[in-house]
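Retry 2 of 3 after timeout on previous attempt. Resubmitting structure tokens to design endpoint.
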């Protein structure tokens, strides 16, 4: 099993999106 750089970047992007959705608006932290 291996992951290409593109796949890793995509996974990180998806995690970031889920983090934003889960926490709502990022501006709330500022």
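Retry 2 succeeded. Sequence:
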């Amino acid at each position: 099993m291996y992951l290409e750089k593109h796949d890793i970047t995509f996974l990180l992007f998806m995690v970031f999106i889920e983090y934003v959705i889960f926490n709502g608006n990022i501006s709330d932290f500022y």
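Attempt log closed. The chain has a mean pLDDT of 77.
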